[in-house]
Amino acid sequence: MNTTLRKDIDWVGYVDWTVRDFHGYQTQRGVTYNAYLVRDQATALIDTVKAPFADQLLANIEALTELAAVRYVICNHAELDHAGGLPGVMKALPNAKLVCDQKCQATLSKHHDVSGWQIQIVASGDTLSLGKRTLRFIETPMVHWPESMFTYVPEEQLLFSMDFFGQHYATSQRFDDEVPLGTMMEEAKTYYANIMMPYGERVAATLEQVAQLDLEMIAPSHGVIWRSHAPAILEAHRNWATCRPQPKVLVIYDTMWESTAQMARAIHEGASLPGVAAELIHIRSSSLTRIATEVLDAAAVAFGSSTLNRNMMPMAAAVLTYLQGLRPINKAGLAFGSYGWGKGGPEAVQECLAALKWELLREPIKAQYRPTPEVLEECRQAGRRLAERAKEMAPRRDASGN
Ligand code: FEO
Fold first, then answer.
1. Which residue blocks in 32-163 are alpha helix, DSSP H?
2. Ligand 1 centre distance from Cα of residue 370 (Å)
3. Among 93, 140, 183, 367, which residue is least crowded by beta carbons within 10 Å?
């Protein structure tokens, strides 16, 4: 495996091929925990790995240099997938000082016993000279946690971007020109939707900071390193930061005895206009991870549920709860669903869509027990309206497709 980013700058992380669940995020292609070693007059380790893999990280370092040569451990982010291995790593590196920002120290001290560690606190703009190279720190609050920080190496035009620009993608290749770009972008989009989407405003501000840097390579803490396609991932993030709508309608539903499914199919039929991508998603045949990813750039979403115990179906509630946390913006919405002797499903969906602050095109479409031909026609018409609204909302593309 080629792990060399630049002369004396190497990836020393861990590839977790088998993990399929990352605190609820379905990781269909596994995960990597990226750590990097910058060897210079003083050697610095950039980030660590999840606790169970700390020994492998240390073995990777030892393959390149003595553990005693590491003088600094930079902690860009205190979340345990990167800082869980810190106690073992700090114990094994006799001459290492931890470098992090103030908020990171506070967070780390809640997770670990840091009393024996030498800690150097840094803030945005501070630099640390390693000899030929300099580390410059840039605090990036809420991308992904309050204490998140980038480390930039100006001499190499190299940015260690922690979670930002990451993907959950286990591969034996480390660079973007060694893997299929479509797969990498798909995983980057999934990662953004499920991790970064709530922080769009902070993401936009951070992208402005990144634009000020001379940049040839972006090395995130997850997935593959951007060295040939950095402009593409920067452009994608500019679009994702505002959930820039595409001419796309999702019809997401759960159903008890197929009535809501019939309504969903009728809405989907109406929404299938030329120039619009209409997708039909049965919640229990999909996943929270997939649905959030599809919602990110959809202009319009029809969401349906049958009524169960005067409420929506439980998996429909799970999806809407998840979306309320992720806060997707710039959507038109429509609620629909069926009921029997007790009402509540479609009304509960409508309430959730309103809480998301989506533009609701009308009151919920409802069917008692079975949708009549009239109700199904109402669904088709609402689907058409959603698709037309999606086309209006999606910005026109220029000749390059942007
Ligand atoms: Fe990969 Fe926010 O941790």
1. 54-62, 80-83, 86-92, 102-111
2. 46
3. 183
Phi and psi for 271 in degrees, rounded to 5?
A: -80, -10
The rounded Å distance from CA 163 to ligand 1 centre is 5
Other beta carbons within 10 Å of 379: 28
Q: Which is the closest atom of ligand 1 to the Cα of 163?
A: 1
Residue among 148, 288, 289 at smallest CA distance from 221:
148
pLDDT per residue as tens digits for the range 197-231: 999 999 999 999 999 999 999 999 999 999 999 99
Who contacts 341 (Cβ-Cβ below 8 Å, separation ≥6)? none
Element of type H or E holding 338:
strand 332-339
Q: Which residue has the tokens 């058409």?
A: 384
Cα 55 from Cα 16, distance rounded (Å): 14
Residue with tokens 């990597």: 32
Q: Quote the CA–CA distance of 282 and 184 in Å, as a whole number.
A: 26
Band of the pLDDT at 395, cuts 50, 70, 90? confident
* Residue showing tokens 């001419």: 247
Nearest CA to ligand 1 atom 1: 163
In 17-58 the beta strands, taken as DSSP E runs, fall at 21-22, 25-26, 31-33, 36-38, 43-46
What residues contact 90, with CB distance under 8 A and at least 6 apart? Answer: 73, 96, 98, 116, 117
Pocket of ligand 1, beta carbon within 6 A:
77, 79, 81-82, 144-145, 163, 221-222
Sign of CA dihedral 270, 271, 272, 275: positive
The rounded Å distance from CA 285 to ligand 1 centre is 28
Report H helices in 198-303.
200-211, 230-241, 259-271, 288-296
This prediction has a pTM of 0.96
Distances in whole angstroms, Cα of residue 150 to Cα of each of 163, 188, 394: 9, 18, 33
Structure tokens that stand for 123 in this block: 């803030």
User: Could you give the angle at the alpha carbon of 294 between the alpha carbons of 24 and 230, nearest 5°?
Assistant: 90
Question: CA-CA distance, 263 to 379, in Å (whole number)?
Answer: 6
Residue whose entry in the numeric block shows the structure tokens 């959030």: 292
What 3-state DSSP class applies to 377? helix
Question: pLDDT at position 400, please?
Answer: 42
79 is catalytic: yes
